[in-house]
Amino acid sequence: MTALNEKTSKLKRNPPGQTGPWFAFPTVFYLVLTIAVPLVITVVYSFLEKAQLGTGVQWSFNPRAYKDIFIQEKLDGTTAFDTRYVKVLWNSFLYSGITTVVTLILSIPIAMWIATRTAAARNFLVAAVTLPFWISILIRTYGLRQIIDDMGPIGAIMHRIGYTSYHIIYTPIATVTGLIYVFLPFMILPIYASAERFDFRLAEAAYDLGARRMTVLRRVILPSIRPGIISGIALVFIPALGSFLQSDMLGGGKTNMIANVIANNYGQARNWPFGSALSVLLMVLTLISVVIVQRIAARKGDKVELI
């Protein structure tokens, strides 16, 4: 009987290195409570009506919030296509796309240079890249605002050399500059992770065979670090698409992104259904972007799991 019990306990025991499902329960419960539940609430709110008084929603099914994104009702009762929120969405995609392209161009040479240093230097440089994560994004954005302000260091230099028309703050350039400043490390790190595993003897062999620098970069180096590039694009473009702080602090309300409009509807406008509808639309567009990135990675033969 004792031998049978020992045999049964061995069968129920998890393999080495594996844990039972109960160990994952607290984490899964936390993720469901903080991510899944708010998403469900947001979707439900998007199909309700705005509260007549105060904040909140009126529990009456009405998909009007989605209609209001694209259709505007005029004072005479007629309707017309509303381009305001389409322009905001376009600006969000445009700023995120510019941010992704610029950070990619800046990150590839930086990541390759870090990957060719000694082990001690690589550790130091990676720590330097991650240093901005140690500081609040609010403080970093406020610091950048002081630097690019008309009365800041850059403005003082421009006025000293005679360029008196310098003005960046509260413009789309300031917003994109803030996005690049914040998301640059998110592009450098995954590209560096791929570049660190690259065998640079392949590049040397290509040089020995007569290949030019751009040919080596295009035919040898970039295909080898492509998984890091795809991961970096996803890590930069998707969060930048929903950024709020940079356009608010550096754009001054003149370069609204979709996240600013959502925050305004939950706050000042007190139109929770419309804010929820915009949030759902943003989630759908983000999901489409993720699927596109994964499809591109799959066609290239790279395995990049984003969802």
From TrEMBL:
Pfam families according to UniProt: BPD_transp_1
Stored InterPro entries: MetI-like, MetI-like_sf
Location in the cell: Cell membrane
Keyword NADP: no
Tagged with keyword Cell inner membrane: no
A cellular component term, taken from the record's GO annotations: plasma membrane
Transmembrane segments: 21-48, 93-115, 124-143, 168-192, 220-241, 274-293
UniProt keyword annotations, A-Z: Cell membrane, Membrane, Transmembrane, Transmembrane helix, Transport
SUPFAM superfamilies assigned: MetI-like
GO biological process: transmembrane transport
Family stated for the protein in its record: Belongs to the binding-protein-dependent transport system permease family. CysTW subfamily.
PANTHER family xref list: INNER MEMBRANE ABC TRANSPORTER PERMEASE PROTEIN YDCU-RELATED (PTHR42929:SF1), INNER MEMBRANE ABC TRANSPORTER PERMEASE PROTEIN YDCU-RELATED-RELATED (PTHR42929)
Protein name stated in the entry: Unannotated protein
Taxonomy of the source species: unclassified sequences, metagenomes, ecological metagenomes
